[in-house]
């Protein structure tokens, strides 16, 4: 795995929210950005089914939060989920600064434990260096209980938090907005979360997380930007890039039709997936998606 210095690494942070649709990802995104920008009503139709992002300037840094559909849910078809995984990758390119794994405080069922295990197993070791666990529904903590105390009650939760370097925080969208107790204050907890992300960036040498999949997408975006510029329209670089992203997303989606969702998620999260994908790409050489040791390939069938 290698990393790249983001063009705006000192003043831009790209944060991806991962987790189940019902665990409060959208509410967490709203708390981080300090305003209601993501849908978060308790209705099946309003929970995140697509990848959305919003950007806001916070403490002299441009914070972009990407709210994803439930990568670890089964409510979306594989085709729908693949489309949204690729959309997320397109928005993250050429790299990201933090994976925020969103989980809910509460009584953990067997299904919940299996989800936590699946999340833990879906991340490659390198990606975990950029991951932090954020619990929602903090009002479910008992009186005097800290989030660290709650995590210790579950072997699976403790293993996940340990793999994320012990980085764990908790919020509550409903009851903690005016609290003075720092353990039960959204303002304090969000501030601590952003500080944790800054510490991760420093520990990782100021570099963002990237891999061959993200670099391939970034290369495609540059290619589409060049094509759009050649059309002669006077537009800003940002506007051209935003127009290029859907083209790249559509091209990749068409080429990766039939690909297993696990393979795509693994490639994005740096997992050593053992899947072989053969599709047509412009380049004449194989391209590895995922970590350098990941056996997930894109092979050009059109080359004689």
UniProtKB/TrEMBL annotation:
<dbReference type="InterPro" id="IPR045058">
    <property type="entry name" value="GIMA/IAN/Toc"/>
</dbReference>
<comment type="similarity">
    <text>Belongs to the TRAFAC class TrmE-Era-EngA-EngB-Septin-like GTPase superfamily. AIG1/Toc34/Toc159-like paraseptin GTPase family. IAN subfamily.</text>
</comment>
<dbReference type="Pfam" id="PF04548">
    <property type="entry name" value="AIG1"/>
</dbReference>
<protein>
    <recommendedName>
        <fullName>AIG1-type G domain-containing protein</fullName>
    </recommendedName>
</protein>
<feature type="domain" description="AIG1-type G">
    <location>
        <begin position="10"/>
        <end position="218"/>
    </location>
</feature>
<dbReference type="InterPro" id="IPR006703">
    <property type="entry name" value="G_AIG1"/>
</dbReference>
<keyword id="KW-0547">Nucleotide-binding</keyword>
<dbReference type="GO" id="GO:0005525">
    <property type="term" value="F:GTP binding"/>
</dbReference>
<dbReference type="InterPro" id="IPR027417">
    <property type="entry name" value="P-loop_NTPase"/>
</dbReference>
<keyword id="KW-0342">GTP-binding</keyword>
